[in-house]
Amino acid sequence: MTAIKESSTIQENKQYALEKCPVTFVMEKIGGYWKPIILYHLSTGDKRYSELKRAIPAVTEKMLIQHLKQLETDGLVIREAKPVVPPFVTYSLSEAGKGLLPVIDAMAAWAFKVKDGVYTI
Amino acid sequence: MTAIKESSTIQENKQYALEKCPVTFVMEKIGGYWKPIILYHLSTGDKRYSELKRAIPAVTEKMLIQHLKQLETDGLVIREAKPVVPPFVTYSLSEAGKGLLPVIDAMAAWAFKVKDGVYTI
DNA sequence: CATAATACATACTTTAGGGTAAGTACTTGT
DNA sequence: ACAAGTACTTACCCTAAAGTATGTATTATG
After folding, report:
1. Where is the HTH hxlR-type domain (chains A, B) (predicted)?
2. pLDDT digits (tens, 9 = 90+) for A54-66
3. Which three-class secondary structure state does DSSP give residue B80?
């Protein structure tokens, strides 16, 4: 249990995020490098833990499970475990998680436009 | 100039991002805590540096200027400086930057839905 | 009996990013 | 002569996040 320094700008900010700036609020939930990528891979349907691992080879197991737990805690993904051995766990998007798909889709659309040279960056 | 360790998963990943995952590619450009917030504040029109500072009180000057420079380098914002004293510098979205507005808008729309209780998270 | 498969957990180390504080340049106003 | 305003810059420190490596439970299978 690592104590959080109260004077961290970002941490203090998080308390008031929704009131102050909607984008800040979203960044609390899906900020960080891996979360949007996980959501993107779940957007095409339920995935087992091991399927996500294969779909995102660059992520370490620690990061994957950590972010899945956070996304679950934040109510964006749903974890379902069948009581079998070996374990069978699937992750899927909740309604709130599905509500974020326009964000993910807009990201993908922009990336493809860049790829196609629509924008010169 | 701080050397980047080659063995960082995220750093290595960045080389191949666009090929592998469009969302990863976008996260390279607007990932991090402050960038989407900056874009959000620029979405309503050009802003002077000092206006941005006032609009985002929680950000430190170092972070603000650092991210503005990165966004400029990435071709998402345009910096225009009038050669006057005191300095008069305005930041605005480039075409590519404007292309990201659907992403920002989708974020804001989701946040307001959460606020209105459309989703239970 | 040992290995494989799945879905994690945990201890420890490293690093990238963020925070603090101070300084710079140039001119106008008092 | 000194402060005030604007848009930065730079040096140093600290922490949160990410990476590495190993361990756990359970059962089927050779």
Report:
1. 21-119
2. 999 889 999 999 9
3. strand
Question: What does the DSSP assignment read for chain A?
Answer: -PPPPTT-HHHHHHTTHHHH-HHHHHHHHH-SSSHHHHHHHHTTS-EEHHHHHHHSTTS-HHHHHHHHHHHHHTTSEEEEEES-SS-EEEEEE-HHHHHTHHHHHHHHHHHHHHHTTSS--
Beta bridge partners of B92: B78
Of B104, B97, B108, B91, give the one whose Cα is nearest residue B45: B91
Given CB atoms, is A119 within the 8 Å cutoff of chain B?
A: yes
Given the structure tokens 């050009």, which residue do they identify? B46
Taking an 8 Å cut-off on Cβ atoms, the answer to whether A102 and B113 are in contact is: no
The answer for residues whose C-beta is within 8 angstroms of residue B58's C-beta and 6 or more apart is A9, A10, A12, A13
Query: Positive or negative, the Cα torsion across A75, A80, A81, A83?
Result: positive
**A46 inside domain:** yes
Per-residue pLDDT of B15-55, as tens digits, reads 455 556 888 888 888 887 889 989 999 999 999 999 999 99
B87-97 tens-digit pLDDT: 999 999 999 99
Tell me if B120 is assigned to some domain: no
Residues 31-90 of B with CB under 7 A from strand C: 32-34, 59-63, 66-67, 85-87
Q: What is the domain count for chain B? A: 1
- Output A57 or A9, whichever has higher pLDDT: A57
Interacting residues of B74 by C-beta distance below 8 A, sequence separation 6+: A121, B29
Domain containing B66 equals 10-115
